[in-house]
Amino acid sequence: MSESLRTTAPLAHPVSRAVVVVAAGSGTRLGMGTAKALVPVAGVVMLERALEAIFALAAPTFVAVVAPPDRLAETQSLVTRVAGPAAPYTAVVPGGADRHASVEAGLRALPQSVATVLVHDAARCLTPTAQFETVFAAVERDGCGVIPALPVTDTVKRIADDLVLETVDRSALVGVQTPQGFPVAALRQAYAVATRSETDDAGVFQAAGGEVRFVPGDADALKITTAWDLRRAEAIVRDRAAVAAAVDDQVPLFGIGIDVHAFDAAQPCRLGLLAFDGEPGLAGHSDGDAVSHAIVDAMLSAAGLGDIGGVFGTDDPRFAGASGAVFLAGAAERLAEHGLRVGRVTVQIIGKRPRIGARRPAMQDALAAALDCPVAVSATTTDGLGFTGRGEGLAAIATAVLRR
């Protein structure tokens, strides 16, 4: 593979959008002793974090990464891994002597089908996907250069040597970020005639007569230049993870369970952990407690752990005649192994008998004690319809809410 240019075969589906990711900087001011784009931020290198946001774009986008010339193979491997199925839509090219030359190298790597290009610094690795989408949309809508920017909040002074001359009106000032977007043909032309005095792509574009507008930037799109910036970026990553975990913890999991048993007059009647003397029992390998079994299925389904038959076995001799309390406790243990607990359970019993009304509070209390959570029990009939209406058996439907 050539060390001067790494590109792909012609694309099966041409794309009109591209991003040039400038990742060839040495990172001298960062002081990490390696190429800046390959420095980890909270355990993930900058370039990988930058690419993750780009590959999350809704529309197919070609990505050209401008890499340190002595780290091409390593960069190619990283890009291929992060891109996954989108790898054919990538290229890795060696950077030039300065940023100007590196951007030109990235532009040369783009397919002919590309109409709009964004130039992005890998050092702004926390830039959200939404910022790329906003810049793309603005360029395609207005046909000009577009930069994301934030208002300047600090007081700004004009100085000469060590003398403060005046306070500058900051209402007309913004801090510029990347990605910066352009019609690709116009940007190529601008770079072809530009000097190397401009500090960003918008400056090159504007110096060649192009119009540049701005859209709101994002505070997280900071540029990592110094060790202090790196520390700040890592704090942002940790805050994002903490917020995501907190939200995840607050989102409950829901499960539904259904169990049906035929009546068996030769068996004692156990339902909802209570004994109903004088009532026909429920047929089954265990004690036939349809209420407990429906709750277990609801618990397991909410956690994605299967069902009562798969977890406990339908004919395991250990559970011959076992009480519903055994299955409830076993299911709770399996939830705990996955960091889950039951937050609430509701169950409805469907059948003509046994009569539940007077014993509903006792059943709720028994189930709540077994599960250590609130339990609501209700009962209904089917007005003579179906096997429950004919008194041939009983059904139970349960829902379970799990918490982390």
Question: How would you sum up this structure, described in words?
Answer:
The strands form six sheets. This protein has a five-stranded mixed β-sheet with strand order 5-4-1-6-11, with helices on both faces. The protein has a five-stranded mixed β-sheet with strand order 16-13-19-17-18. It has two domains: 17-249, Spore Coat Polysaccharide Biosynthesis Protein SpsA, Chain A, CATH 3.90.550.10; 252-403, 2-Layer Sandwich (60s Ribosomal Protein L30, Chain: A). A hairpin with a 2-residue loop joins strand 2 (40-41) and strand 3. It has twelve helices and 19 strands. It is of the alpha/beta class. Residues 1-8 have low confidence and may be disordered. The chain is elongated. Helix 5 (184-193) crosses helix 6 (201-207).
